[in-house]
Design goal:
Helices cover 21% and strands 31% of the residues. The protein is of the alpha+beta class. The strands form six sheets. Strands 11, 12, 13, 14, 15 and 18 form a six-stranded mixed sheet that branches.
């Protein structure tokens, strides 16, 4: 999985009919800056409102995932989002001149091809992964659906579907490497059972559906007169069915388990609404949009709680700033230069590393025989980490002094001893105004929270 965020090199458009609304629309993917995420924009509406691709904005799950914000609604977002996730593209503005992305052939492949044609561009910011820290479970007994997310330092998905059908037996599909999405999953088309068609039309859905953008599974006996009715329903001069295939108009499947693969595609798209790339093993039994969104909400709730959002430190990876580069930014020197490495840095957050050794001068007098790192120095190390974030937010950091001017909600949770490696993460909690900025900071040892505080810093111009 990629370490850096990505966008596209240029804008690219696709045009087609929406599956459920039946409205023809043009969808344009537009490059976006780091940390922008996925946002839809209804350019056909007054003021061209923005809709964040966020699980909190889901308003309807009738045969697709619909989101709404700022008075604008976007239908059936899952195939579009799956294409972006599958190509590991993080930041895109998706402009629409209608209420629904084009269904195209019922899969994500046309979107994938368009995005590849536009070019994928690496950005100077790290991906903000959320590593699922514990077992997360969603179950709906009535619909017999069950999904779980398990801890894993990668992103893998497995889906099982079983429709109790003579035409489609139980199917499984897996994706163990996201880079295989284009070849193994993207071209798998949406599907519907024949017995569902009439009901869906009566529900004012699938207005744009026909045999070019969906697989229709014939799961019962069909009379000749009914075939004529179906041809009118689907705007086709004639429809037929080969009983040996069980698919209307005898459409060839791309894969024997295309239905399970498409359900996996939907799952990837729906989980994109979490708002961050995740690392987890996802297991799904008979998933649907409601279940997918249910799991996404549980994972987002876990993110909001702060549980599991612990920075990971791999000493084998090159740091963003080493000790010498830190010295070029911060004026602190031995014995008061408290940070050894900066291992992550973007516009809103920074992660620093402090290696605690018995050679620290303060251990000579701080609890001899039971050396414990003073809490005030843990706070200082956290503040210096935040100072890096503050200084790198201005174009001319050499011209400023960063001062800590306020501390609130400071807590020390566990003792820090020689031999510990403390990982500090600081994040802006408000934009900088007149040189004043607020941050939250946390320190971890072996994944355990040891200290935390809210801080206020001031950038003062050097004379």
């Amino acid at each position: 999985m990629n370490e850096k965020q990505q966008t596209i090199s240029k804008s690219v458009s696709v045009t087609g009919v929406g599956l459920h609304t039946g409205v023809v629309a043009t969808m344009t993917f537009v490059p976006a800056p780091a940390n922008h995420g996925y946002k839809f924009q209804r350019v056909d509406l007054p003021d061209q409102p923005i809709v964040d691709a966020d699980v909190d904005n889901v308003v309807d799950l009738s045969r697709g995932t619909t989101i709404e914000q700022n008075g604008a609604r976007i239908h059936t977002v899952e195939h579009t989002l799956a294409a972006l996730v599958g190509l590991q593209i993080d930041n895109v503005l998706i402009q629409l001149d209608g209420p629904e992305p084009p269904i195209m052939d019922g899969s994500s492949i046309r979107f994938v091809d368009a995005l590849i044609d536009a070019g994928i561009e690496e950005q100077n910011a790290y991906r903000n992964y959320f590593e699922v820290p514990e077992y997360v479970h969603y179950k709906n007994k009535e619909k017999d659906t069950e999904l779980v997310a398990l801890p894993l330092s990668d992103y893998r998905l497995t889906v099982m579907v079983d429709y109790n059908s003579k035409v489609i037996s139980s199917q499984h599909a897996s994706l163990n490497d996201i880079t295989l999405f284009k070849d193994d999953i993207a071209a798998c088309r949406t599907f519907v059972f024949l017995h569902e068609l009439e009901a869906l039309y009566k529900q004012n859905l699938i207005k744009g559906g026909d045999l070019t953008n969906a697989i229709v599974i014939v799961d019962r006996e069909v009379e000749d007169g009914e075939l004529d009715h179906l041809s009118q329903l689907l705007n086709k001069p004639k429809v037929s069915v080969d009983k040996s295939k069980g698919i209307l108009n005898n459409v060839d499947l791309h894969y024997s388990n295309e239905m399970a693969r498409h359900k996996l595609l939907d799952l990837i798209g729906d989980l994109a609404l979490i708002g961050r790339p995740i690392k987890a093993q996802i297991l799904a039994a008979r998933p649907g949009h409601a279940a997918n969104v249910g799991l996404a909400k549980k994972i987002k709730k876990l993110i909001k709680s702060g549980k599991g959002d612990i920075p990971q430190y791999d000493p084998k990876k090159a740091p963003i700033f080493d000790i010498n580069q830190i010295g070029q930014l911060l004026a602190h020197r031995y014995p008061f230069q408290m940070i050894d490495k900066i291992i992550a840095l973007d516009e809103n957050s920074v992660v620093g590393v402090k290696n605690v050794t018995i050679n620290e001068q303060y251990f000579l007098g701080h609890f001899p025989g039971n050396p414990v790192m003073p809490g005030v120095l843990q706070l200082e190390a956290m503040a210096q980490t935040g100072g890096i974030l503050v200084l790198t937010s201005v174009p001319d950091p050499d011209n400023y002094w960063p001062y800590l001017i306020g501390i609130d909600a400071c807590r020390f949770r566990r003792n820090v001893f020689p031999g510990d490696t403390v990982i500090f993460k600081c994040e802006f909690t408000s934009p900088m105004k007149r040189g004043i900025v607020k941050m939250s900071g946390r320190g971890y040892v072996s994944g355990q929270l040891v200290c935390e505080a809210d801080m206020i810093a001031s950038l003062v111009k050097k004379k």
